[in-house]
Amino acid sequence: MILEVVWSKYLSFLLGNSIYGVSTVVAAFLGGLGIGASLGGRLAARTREPLLLYARLELIVAVMGLLSPVAYLAARPIFASLNALFLGHGAAFLFLRFLVLFAALLVPTIAMGASLPLLVSDFSRRDAKGSSPAVARLYAVNTAGAVAGVAAAGFLAIPALGLWKTAALAAGIDLAVVLAILLARPPAPVAAAGEGVAAEPAPDARGPKSLGAPHQAPAFAGWILPIFAISGFTAILYEVAWTRILAVPFGGMVYAFSAILAIYLVGIALGASAAARLLRHVKAPVALFGVLQGILAAAVALGSRLFERIPHWEATAIAASMGSTWRLLLGEVGIAARIILPASLALGALFPTAVAVYQLKRREAGASVGTIYAANTIGSIAGSLLTAFLLIPWIGTLRSILLAAGLNAAIGIAALLAGEGRPILRRSAAAVLAASAVAFAALAMPTWDAERMSLGLIRLLRSHWYGGESLTHRTIDAIGRSTKLERLLFYKEGRAAAVTVIESGGRRALLINGKTDATTGVGEDMAQQVLVGQLPLLMLRDDGKDVCVVGYGSGVTTHAVLTHPVHEVLTIELEDAVIEAAPQFRADAGEPLADPRSRLLIEDAGTYLRSTRRAYDVIISEPSNLWIAGMADLFTRDFYRTAASKLRPGGIFCQWVQCYQTSPATLRTIFRTLAVPFPHGQLFFVDKSADLIILASPDRDVPLDLDRLAEAWARPEVARDFARVGVESLADLLRYYRGRLDRVAAEAGPGPINTDDNGWLEHRAPFDLLAGATSEHEMAWSPDVAADLAASIVPDRDRAAALLDDAARRAKAAGNEGAVLGLKMARERLARGK
């Protein structure tokens, strides 16, 4: 499982974090596992020593793990060329990319998928208690190992070691397993299946615990493969849906996703362990399968009634954490367990039970496991694709979950009617399950309050910081119940995220998975959104021809760019629903996408820039916050090098950086990392929102050219855009100046660089947020702003002096004494010629 986590991260760099990239990875990975399981089942039935064959497959996986970094580097130009040729060609491109990835993953995933059938075959031949309990025990142990792998990779190994060292660690573990098997290998089973080993007797004919009617069981057993494929479909749907729901209050952090997956796997491991005991005593696997499907449906349906309590539970966890990141994560594990654990227990018990049903046809244990595993995988592939692309966008998360629960209930009813036992008992149980489903639909159907389900972690944290736990609970209760606090204008569950637009106090806010990513009015975000679009265009020597904007948000930044005479503006956005919400911000952003110079691409920005052959005069990177999983990929040295390579000579790269809930250590790492490919740059700081805007260049200084600034400012559209955020003149603009990038990076000193491999920011930023870390704003400034400003203004010293005097007067009128002092010092430096 450690290698799966590492490979998934490597593949995200190749295919991106868009829903198309993620779905391609999942489908290709599951496809290989399914083929491996089917092949492993066939080999298990024929080989004399399945354990030895298992060791050989583990050796293959270990070698692949060791070669992971080399394979990744070799694959980069291949996928870059593929993306460059076919990106934007719709389904044909996605299918071609899937085929290439599937071929690349085929060997290791087949080896992984074949491992469980081979282990089961070996152990079942040695286990006198029968193969069904052996299947359950091994499945439980295998899943428990997956839990350990997820936890180790997500919480310890990758943050501490980085990707390639973690892959090497996993390879070392695999090699240790191989060595242990070779050194302490028990004698081979008495006979292999190919030499006359008969499949064990059908469970219903084995003892006094049989419930009767054995002739009915084989009929259902003949349908178990498509039925269990449907069950696999619902299982992956639940995992995707639960993750989508919990990601909002948990903040979408990498640790939260690891915790959710770990809880899901813990339930499966415990359920499989319980099934080992059940299958030892209950000789009615079809009836048991039906009961478990009914329990699963009930657990999912009843659990869905708890969804609207999740914000309250998160508020309690925040209060109980007392500022400790680990305490909050532990509280979130408890929340996830309440939602996921009951149903995942049933899911874990279903796999070995399905194998037991399939073995009613007297099939060898390893072959049965492989075939059932493959059927389940087919359903899982369909579930991962249909859930993200069709079901959630069409009918929403809640209805998708309830639809899947209905499928499980229907399977349960069918299994109970066709299973072992007395007809009156079977029919009564089926009737109870059907009646319960009808009663739930009629009387207890859960609701989905879009506003409450959009309450993200940062909003809950701020409510707690400013008003405590009591106020937070009252706020949660008021959300969605009264329009006095806020009003819902738009809500859409998209393919990758839930997008919400709310209005409060005359301001509108765009929320993506509960995190505010844009606001209107004179609020804290508006100045930053305008300046991020305006400043890089002011710093160009000539009018920019082509501009790339990463992140659409409310559209204000793209609108700001379009106030300049640019040739084309490409805006890259991950989520379609953000674009659907754009009309809600028409009053402030206009309709930038309707401009003939504007082009939109729904894709991961890293994937696009790594693959495109186009060059740009300006690249503006304005993603969401660092603590959100995947966002820190746009703050790595690797991404910055890619961006620098896509700039034309003299081009400008603009980076937005949050300074709120960001520690000094994190800021220093950002400065060090950005300065590697961009040695030249200027810093501007937006006081209202505590946001830093960095204008950087790989090949030239970025001076404050008064002639160029005045020329751009002479355009009425540009001046109006600045004026609406309180910047009436060039003198006003200088109040935001905070120094040179090279000086800030040098002041940061030696320390970590954020890379694709180490993911330093992705794993550090959540601790800054959850601990309420806040950097002293001076950490985002040059140690000598005045000297940097005096040295950066060109070409006329007299004009610069007058401008600085005007800026100081305006800063004093605005009550910004810090800016007044800095501007006066810059004026003195300029007068002395320094």
Molecular structure report:
This protein is of the alpha/beta class and 834 residues long. The chain has 4 domains: 2-188 and 214-441, Growth Hormone, Chain: A; 450-518, Spermidine Synthase, Chain: A, domain 2 (Roll), CATH 2.30.140; 521-782, Vaccinia Virus protein VP39 (Rossmann fold, 3-Layer(aba) Sandwich), CATH 3.40.50.150; 784-834. The protein is 64% helix and 10% strand. It is built from 32 helices and 14 strands. The strands form 3 sheets. It has an 8-stranded mixed sheet. Helix 1 crosses helix 6. The longest helix is centred in the middle third of the chain and has 54 residues, at 365-418. Mean pLDDT is 86; it is low at 191-216.
Range of strand content: 5-15%
Tally the structural domains.
4
Radius of gyration: 30 Å
Provide the CATH topology of the largest domain. Answer: Growth Hormone, Chain: A
Task: Please give the number of β-strands.
Answer: 14
Low-confidence stretches: 191-216
Rough outline: elongated
Give the secondary structure arrangement, pairings included.
Elements: H1 2-15, H2 19-46, H3 50-66, H4 68-86, H5 91-126, H6 131-161, H7 163-183, H8 217-221, H9 224-250, H10 254-281, H11 285-304, H12 310-321, H13 325-358, H14 365-418, H15 423-443, H16 450-453, H17 457-478, E1 487-493, E2 498-504, E3 507-512, E4 515-519, H18 524-538, E5 546-550, H19 556-562, E6 568-573, H20 576-580, H21 586-589, E7 598-602, H22 605-611, E8 616-621, H23 637-645, E9 647-658, H24 664-675, E10 680-686, E11 691-697, E12 704-705, H25 706-713, H26 716-723, H27 730-734, E13 737-740, H28 741-748, H29 760-770, H30 785-792, E14 793-794, H31 797-813, H32 817-831
Parallel strand pairs: 5-6, 5-8, 6-7, 8-9, 12-14
Antiparallel strand pairs: 1-2, 2-3, 3-4, 9-11, 10-11, 10-13
